[in-house]
Protein 1
Amino acid sequence: MNKKIKILALETSCDETAAAVVENGQLVLSEVIATQIPTHQKYGGVVPEIASREHLEHVTIVIDEALRKADLSLAEIDAIAVTYGPGLVGALLVGVATAKALAYATKKPLLAVHHLRGHIYANLLSHPDLILPAICLVVSGGHTSLLLWEKNGSLKLLGATRDDAAGEAFDKVSRTLGLGYPGGPNIERMAVLGDSEAIAFPKAWLEEGSFDFSFSGLKSSVLNYLNKQKMKGEEINQANVAASFQKAVVDVLVQKTFAVAEKHQINSIAVAGGVAANLALRSALAESCLMSNRKLYVPAIKYCTDNAAMIGAAAYPLFLQKNFAALDLNAYPNLSLHTE
């Protein structure tokens, strides 16, 4: 296809109201994000009702700004893409309703994108030369999964979290330490000041040969440690707790990723999701890739957290396949990742 396909993409699954214009699934012509982090920080986490109202307030603003930055009109857009799940139902509905209205008014195709598929395809924004098949580690606030990303673009689930996702554990430990929200960046900043070997927190490997994850035990262990220190009246070294906790998470993520890559004889490793921005995780993955002669693909930091450019990237194959959504598209907060 010689024509340059320009997709206007929307992302409103949680606490970022985002719009972007992406050309041919890889070239970002514009991207705009209205973050809600300052709003939710005072509550220690995302408040769904507030998130929905913030999306309503900002969605048309970010769309107008994305079109302006791309120097395009709606008439020059080839399709409208939107995240339709998983996520907060009220937040998703704002994006879905807006995208449907735009598609109807402009008579443009509507493309429904799975949020996690967007995170995975964010790799193509930074690495257009990514070699498939690849093992993809998806690690975020709500998900921790290992997938086989095949040459035809299909995704096969190989392992998933059985309880808390890694990002969720970061948030809970951060709140307990009094570091606030968002937990991931706060834990990472504190961990730099600590000794990752100071406290031997447990690592859940599960049964032999399992590529699933479990972080609830680790989270509970950290909370128990903090409670015991307080009961004994002993000072808590926050930096050591953060560093030791982070190492316990990273070690499991990295070792399971490379174990599954070895089993399936895959030489490309991709990472996706908000926790992919963690520098300790990036460093450990890079070191393991160097030792095992594998290639690591990690999105630019700005494409690790929720954004609309990744939705535009994931929507492009759907456009080529003419896999258009109907105007009765709904939001699905618990949408599973299709592995066809």
Protein 2
Amino acid sequence: MSRLRVLAFSDVALPEGSGGVERQIEEVYGRWVAAGDAEVLLVALGDQSLPRRDVRRGVRIVRASQLNLGRLTGMQATLSWGVWPLAFKAARVFRPDVVHAHTLFYASSPAAAAIARREDLPLALTAHIGSLDALPGPQRAASRLYESTIGRALVRQADVTICVGESVRRHIEGLGGREPHLRVVPNGVDRGRFHPGPRQLIERERGAGEPLIIVSAGRLIFNKGHHAVIDAVRALDEDGLPVELRIAGDGPMRDELEQRAADLTARGVVTFLGQRDDIEDVVRDADVFVRASMTESMPMGVLEGMATGLAVVASDVGSTREIVEDGRTGLLVRPEQPVDLVEALRCLASDAALRRELGRNAREATERFSWDASAAGTLEAVHEAVRLHRARSAASEPVR
């Protein structure tokens, strides 16, 4: 395969965010550049604290200003008028072979599609979200309206849509995606960075009064369900169970979550750690990893908790079931069902042997998820987008 010039689009890029999309971008594109497989220019969004131009792991980044709607919606939502002129300038100067956009819901994705359409370039689209059914009514209605219009148009234009899990592929099929334009490429996990520490390897019972340490990591937005974890920990604390919750990450709901947990924070039951570069150390210092999401693709945080050897409790949404086998590598709970979450945590708090067994099985299960495989699969899919686009263009040319 020849070396590609890839014009990529994502609303968020490291180091601004702590979510799965930006982690995937850095791991995949960084490997392409290091191997000489591609040259990547990433068009992203950012506030004034971030440089307008940047380089990370050989990937050049240009940023447009944004209007962050996260505080208004509680979700990852932005607007950007500046991304359009920046995108067209980048295409004119960079002269890409292919356009690669991330996430149907990002403000930069329609701009990516417009560039591909105007310049007659192949469009690869990576879909990161599956079913929206577990969202509350207003968020669900708004998200479905967007998907049925703009999202559907993006999927239909894309030469290839890369889905990070089978559940995401089925969701994209519902928006009109069809073979041979769909590829499933799972996320990866760095098992060297996320590995068990003494807390996971030393078999011991918790001492009397020693708290069960729970970590909930990810962007602080409504659909990640941090509020549900706080409520579950409150219920356990009120029952007299020693428990400590550490929330790692940042986002538009931080103030609201801090207010929700104010009394627990004052007593040291809940701690907000903010965005952490040493998230692997945060996870290793815990007993249980919780992800109480209402929407997911293939949750990277869950993979990282599993690779660390933690017992994992996760909502049964998106492709979580494809990585967590309920009762063997973790515990799955129904989204937005507080009783389920409380009972799962109570079970793990009282059964150290079960925690160790789930953690060992989880660590073993992550052997099949690697960033090398994810980078290779994504590169192959992007090359396939180029091939399909050229074949379609050739077929549409008039016979001379």
Protein 3
Amino acid sequence: MAATVGGLLRDAAVRLTESGSETPRLDAEVLLGHVLRVDRATLLAGPEAGVGVEAAREFERLVERRSSGEPVSYIRGIKEFYGVAFTVDPRALIPRPETETLVDLAVALIGTMLTAHPRSPDDPLRVWDVGTGSGAIAVAIAIHNRRRGYSSDVRLRATDASADALALAIENAVVHGVADVIDFRQADLAYGAESEPVDLLLANLPYIPTDTLPTLPKAVSFEPASALDGGPDGLALIRRLIEQLASALREGGVSLLEIGSDQADAARAAATTLGDGWSVDVHDDLTGRPRVLEIARVAH
């Protein structure tokens, strides 16, 4: 009997449920849509549609990979973030939806800064994405700037300690045609990328406590541990970066740092070590949970 869309989805959902997937039906739909090269709406509109032998076999192979715990995004090689399709693989963390809050805040700030103090290619607004990973934040902002006509007035820098992650970020920038407006460098946080202070510093650094990592879904184990492990309380790298803000940010500059939803108080406390001349705020994500620590250097 020929395989059908509905039959393949039912069987795969059962198998993925048994393997521990938290979203078995969705996983099955996304993977079958990937194999057949159709979107989910098209897929679900024709449950009785036949599926060829080779396509069914390929779907079976992908379901097997997902059953082993491999993330759907790595299997597909693509993750949508901020309306952009990014290439993803085990060289870097898979972009999360909650990080879009940081990008929203960043693009709003860029617009505000340019309105208050118009810039030019000779004196651009300088934006630094620290720990860029797949490049999702920097590339999403660069695409937004291009659409708004800001490209020549904003200079983006993206750094990462991992050469492999940096290579992936560059690939994504090239694919989306923004590699010429992003300066990619390998660096340890705000060290090793010498240049003048910037107007806006962004970072989505690891913030998961070390002891929490083994309790996370199996799919997370396929991602680089260095992109997840934030030390004993999750804030080790964030504290290090905060210590560097005095030299990395110019007067009037702002830093936006993603944090865990239960880390707002500890993150605020870390920021107060900067002393006078700094303001601190925390922004919620779309679910109402604390997500982004804002640290601003007061202009004199």
Protein 4
Amino acid sequence: MVQSILSYNFMQNALAAAVVASLICGIIGTIIVEKGLVSMSGGIAHASFGGIGLGYFIGIEPIIGGLLVATGASLGVGQIQRKTRTKADTVISMFWSAGMALGILFIALTPGYPPDMTSYLFGDILTVSDIYLRIMLVLAIGMSLLVFMFFNYFKLYLFDEEYAAILGINVLGLERTVYVMIALSIVVLIKVVGIILALALLTIPTATAKLFSDRLSTIMLLATIFGVVYSLTGLCISYYLDIPSGASIILNAIVIYGVLGIMRRRKAFGIKKA
């Protein structure tokens, strides 16, 4: 079975992309969950659709447009939230709606036959190219090194922002760094599971990891492992049943999380959280 899957170059790229994406989800997904940025991340994901549409409209790589808009949206949410009294959910919903609306508008205005946006909305990991895989790997390694080099600073920012400020830590700089990493992660995941499902892959592995541990570093490690399991098994299911890969990965993750959650609640494992 393994030999059959690995005999195709596109499957090799897909499997490698699944592993790299899992590393991103394990680290950045944990930050998102622990800091309560799930809603914001969903808004950034949908806002990136505007950048993808803009990329088609002006004739550049759509992912580059998505990256620029996602980064701008993530920083914009934080800036508006600090400068005004508008609640975060309200700002996020506006960016969410505006991004999707602009994406639809730019695609409609693009000359020629309208492009197929299915792979961007729902993902198609089988279309990951060698170049895209290298970009994913560079971003994953870069973000992982950044988090682990300044792990204690990020930990303070996540759990006690006020104390971090008292210690003289640049909390605003950390916040902006986190927001940019979230934007990068989402754009990377677009090819794997798509805009619509990216948030699920960022949160489900972390939610599963939290069933077994409360320690931040352990959660990141377990979330990465669960992400690999979810992605690879979901991809194999997709390959053999000939169903969409993004949906297969997410549904597989939800089922496994549900089973582990039930077993954990019934203390079937007989182990304590680390």
